[in-house]
Amino acid sequence: MKIQAALLAVSGLMLASTAFAQTAGKPILAATTDWNIYSAGPHQAINDAKVEGGKAVEAPAPGTGGIWEVGAIRPIDGAIAKGDHVVASVWVKSDVPAKVVFRVETRAGAARVGENSIDIGADWSQQTLDFVATDNYPAGATQVALLLNSGKQTIDLGPVSVVDKGGN
Predict the structure, then answer these.
(1) Which of 22, 80, 90, 132 could potentially form a cystine with 137 if both were Cys, beta carbons 3.0 to 4.6 Å apart?
(2) Local confidence pLDDT in tens for the 168 residues of the chain
(3) Phi and psi dihedrals of 19, rounded to 5?
(4) Phi and psi at residue 69, in whole multiples of 5°?
C-alpha cells in the first residue's frame, strides 16, 4: 500500500513537472479567445464549459477555395529574439475530423516563423507549435495564424497563448 501511494505521488509530480515545463517561460501572448476571423461566412463567440476558460469562437469553413480563405489570427504582443525557443498553444475542436495549418508568422507579408499541420477531432484538444526563432522579431511584429479551410467543417477555437522560453 505504501509503495502504491509513493508511486502515485511520484507520477503526480512527473505530470506537474511536465505541465510546468510546457508553460515555463515569458508569456508574449497571454491566453485569450480574442480571435480575428477572416472568412466570407459568419462566426460567433460561444460558451463551452469543456474548454479551458469556458469561451471559444466558432468558425465555419465551406471547404471550397484555398485553405487560407478562412483563417483565425491573433497578434503576438511580445518580441521574439533569434535563437529563442517559442511555444504557441491553442485549444481546438471540429465537427468533423479536420486538418489545420497552425503557424506563427510575420504580420507584414505573412512570412513563416514556425509552422505545423495539426489534426483536429470532435473533442477539445490543446495543440502546440514548438520552434526556435531564426531571426529577431520586434514586439507586435508576429501573429498566430490558423488556416481553417481544409474542408467543409466548423472549427471551434479556444484560448491561444504564446510563451518565449528564451535562448538555448
Answers:
(1) 80
(2) 444 433 333 333 333 333 433 458 999 999 999 999 998 788 999 999 999 999 999 999 999 989 999 999 999 999 999 999 999 999 999 999 999 999 999 999 889 999 999 999 999 999 999 999 999 999 999 999 999 999 999 999 999 999 999 986
(3) -60, -40
(4) -75, -15
Written as one letter, the residue type at 98 is A
Which residue matches cell numbers 508568422?
105
pTM, 2 dp: 0.83
Count other C-beta atoms under 10 Å from residue 121's C-beta.
Answer: 12
Alpha-carbon distance of 104 to 141, in angstroms, equals: 10
What whole-number distance in Å separates Cα of residue 81 and Cα of residue 31?
A: 21
> What is the C-alpha to C-alpha distance for residues 1 and 3, in angstroms, rounded to an integer?
5
